[in-house]
Structures are given as structure tokens and as C-alpha cells.
Specification:
single chain; about 30% strand; alpha+beta
Length: about 150
């Protein structure tokens, strides 16, 4: 995992860019970076938990379903805060596709409820404050996650 931090003139971290290999071993260190970032931006415990969950789940999906855990395929994560919103972009480099039916509650809770996969992106849509969207780029996709900070955050 490679982490780049952009700082303001007063030394505050304003943006973090992370490059991950498509490997499960990268998830623990990623979670710690995302957690510290969210806490440093004033997120309360609930918002931190949900933001970390959403980023982690999107990274796992990118590694597994899009990059197919291929060694040369990376996943990029960008974290920043705009006003009262924590924003993350997760971008992969694979050729796999994400089935957007997994955002539909009726699809997830119907006959597919007992499947071993398919609930992660649905839960991301429920834990984030703005519906994630996909932008397909050459050789990959990008998903946006937004978590609002509460008044107490």
C-alpha cells in the first residue's frame, strides 16, 4: 500500500491518495488510514464506522469482481472532505463489471438473500448518504461514496 497525503499550509491533511495491490492483506492497513482520516475530520463514531465500512466494501468488490485479484491490477482510493461531507473515490483497473442490481433491495432480499455475495454494495448504498455512482473509465470503474458529518461532528 502506498499513501500520499496532501497538506494545507497549516499542516492539516486535506486529501489522501492510496494505491493498493489487489490483495486482501491490504485491507487492514487501509481501514486504519480511512479511520484516522475520518476521525481527524471530526466524524463521530457512527459516521467513522459507516465510512470505513463503505470504503472497505467497495475496495473488496474492486479487488475481487473487477480486478479478479490479479497481481498487477491496483485499486486507488482518494479521501477528502468538502464542507460537511467525507468523500471517497474507489477506482480499479480491471475489466470486470459490477452488477448494479445489487443496489436494489428487492433483488438482494428476494431469492438472493442466502447467496454468498451480493449484499455488500446494497449495504454501501444504505450506509452512505448519497447513492454511490459508477463512472467507467478505460480499463476500470470509479465509485463515489459520500458520508455527511452530523452537527455534532
Amino acid at each position: 500500500m502506498v499513501v500520499f497525503e496532501a497538506m494545507s499550509r497549516n499542516g492539516e491533511i486535506v486529501k489522501i491518495d492510496i494505491s493498493l495491490n489487489s490483495s486482501i492483506e491490504e485491507l487492514g492497513p487501509l481501514e486504519e488510514v480511512v479511520r484516522k482520516f475520518a476521525e481527524s475530520k471530526g466524524a463521530d463514531e457512527d459516521a467513522v464506522h459507516k465510512f470505513v465500512y463503505c470504503v472497505r466494501e467497495c475496495v473488496i468488490n474492486s479487488m475481487k469482481y473487477v480486478n479478479n485479484f490479479e497481481p498487477g491490477k491496483n485499486v486507488g482510493v482518494r479521501l477528502y472532505r468538502v464542507g460537511r461531507k467525507l468523500i471517497a473515490y474507489v477506482e480499479d483497473t480491471g475489466t470486470g463489471q459490477v452488477d448494479e442490481r445489487y443496489f436494489d433491495e428487492s433483488f438482494v432480499t428476494g431469492q438472493n438473500l442466502l447467496e454468498t455475495h451480493g449484499r455488500g454494495l446494497f449495504l454501501v448504498s444504505k450506509h452512505s448518504d448519497e447513492m454511490p455512482f459508477f463512472t467507467y473509465t478505460k480499463g476500470g470503474k470509479k465509485i463515489r461514496i459520500v458520508k455527511n458529518l452530523t452537527n455534532s461532528s
